[in-house]
Every structure is written in C-alpha cells, then in structure tokens.
Specification:
Layout (H helix, E strand, L loop, with lengths): L10 H27 L4 H22 L3 H27 L20 H15 L4
C-alpha cells in the first residue's frame, strides 16, 4: 500500500487545493443561481449543484488516506470527467437549455477548460499514488 499521506504530498497538495477552489466556486455559483433564478434554467442550475457536490467529494477523498477514500476519489473523478464531457456536448448542441453557463458547460470554457483537465490530472495522480 502506498504511504498514508502520498496523495497529500507534492503535486497532490496542489491538486487538492485546486479541487477545493472549484468546490467552493461551484457551490457558491449553484447556491446563488438556485436561490435567485432557478426558474430560468433549472437543468443548468441543478447541474451546477451536482458539479459542486462532485468537487466537494473529490476534494475530501483526495485529502484522505485509505482504500475506501481512494476508490471514492477514483469514482468521483471519473463521474466528473464523464459529466464534463456529457454536459459540454449537451450545452453545445442545445444552447437553449443553458441560458447561463455552468461549470461544465462548453467543456469548462468559462473556467479556462480546467474542468475538463482536472479530472484527468486527478485520475493520473490517483493511479500514481494507488494503494498497493
């Protein structure tokens, strides 16, 4: 098994920090959107809330050690990647469903495409620090 703190060291520390920033940003954005104008684009705003939950879960699981945390981190990064690809594609094919952008719409173009790169980096880091 990899050392208990392997995921939290070196590049992992930066990765966890970036996930934490995205968890905070997505949570705040979804909260404001749902509280103030949910009726305008419920699908987009619920997807923002879902993205926020995924980022929070990934942040916590990347920061924790153990096999279960590792597995949940892999699952959350995988769900995130599939979500970015699905929502990114959907948002480009049905622009009317996304009058306001979400974290994942346009493959994360509003966030410099970090949302499509972040889960790939997360999965690569998890592979490198996998419990043996």
């Amino acid at each position: 098994m990899a050392e208990a703190g392997a995921r939290r060291s070196g590049p992992g520390r930066v990765l966890i920090a970036v996930y934490g920033v995205f968890a905070l940003a997505a949570s705040a954005r979804a909260g404001v959107q749902i509280a103030t104008k949910f009726h305008e684009a419920p699908v987009a705003y619920l997807l923002s809330a879902f993205a926020a939950v995924v980022y929070v879960l990934a942040t916590v699981m990347l920061a924790r050690s153990g096999r279960t945390s590792y597995r949940v981190a892999v699952a959350s990064c995988t769900v995130e990647f599939v979500g970015v690809l699905a929502v990114g594609t959907y948002s480009l094919t049905d622009r009317a469903a996304f009058p306001d952008p979400t974290v994942w719409s346009g493959f994360g173009s509003g966030y410099g495409f970090v949302p499509v790169v972040l889960p790939v980096l997360g999965l690569l880091w998890l592979r490198r620090t996998a419990p043996r």
